[in-house]
Amino acid sequence: MRDWSGHLLQAGAFNLGAASILIAEATAMRNGLRAAIEARFSNIHIEGDNKILIQAVQGRIQPPWEIQVLVQDIIYFLQKYNHVIVQHIFREGNRAADWLAKLGLSLPSARVWNQTSHIDLHCILSEDNLDYTLARRVA
């Protein structure tokens, strides 16, 4: 979670074992929304690189059965906000979340940070705040 200027408010990572990417992304979104509610945010802007999850949350497609309950939870949490934006971004624009997901694979239990404690994450967030972007690779 970041504030309006892009500064880190809270980050988390966890290991779901052999869960699919779709389940991991939906679980992370649900957990992040729950944390944002606990922090009493009233406006939220969600960016995600999993097009299926984003479209399911937007109501544009029926969620796959494996994330149906998670999407229901997400939609329930979204109703608690005054203003909500949910949009798809390419993976290159979601490097911080990607970095945290990879870190989560190596963790024995869930971790939450309220400040940037790792230099790699700090660099990713700084570059993102400066609108530094990676070129999208095409095959």
As laid out across the biggest beta sheet, the strand order is: 1-4
Estimate the mean pLDDT confidence.
84
What order do the SSEs take from the amino end to the carboxyl end, as H and E?
EHEHHEHEH
Low-confidence stretches: none
The number of E-state strands comes to 4
- Strand-residue proportion: 5-15%
Q: What's the N-to-C terminus distance? A: 32 Å
What's the alpha carbon Rg, rounded to whole Å?
15 Å
Shape: globular
Question: Number of helical segments?
Answer: 5
Quaternary state of this entry equals single chain
GO molecular function: nucleic acid binding; RNA-DNA hybrid ribonuclease activity
Protein name: RNase H type-1 domain-containing protein
Pfam family, one: RVT_3
Domain RNase H type-1: 1-103
Task: Describe the 3D structure.
By secondary structure, the protein is α+β, with helices and mostly antiparallel strands. It has one domain (11-136): 2-Layer Sandwich (Nucleotidyltransferase, domain 5), CATH 3.30.420. The chain is 41% helix and 13% strand. The chain contains five helices and four strands. It has helices at 21-38, 51-57, 68-78, 95-104, 119-129, and strands at residues 11-13, 43-48, 83-88, 111-113. The strands form two sheets. It has a two-stranded antiparallel sheet. The longest helix has 18 residues, at 21-38.
Question: Which features would summarize this protein structure in a list?
Answer:
alpha+beta; Nucleotidyltransferase, domain 5; globular
How are the SSEs placed, and which strands pair?
Blueprint: E1 11-13, H1 21-38, E2 43-48, H2 51-57, H3 68-78, E3 83-88, H4 95-104, E4 111-113, H5 119-129
Parallel strand pairs: 2-3
Antiparallel strand pairs: 1-4
Helix pairs in contact: 1-3
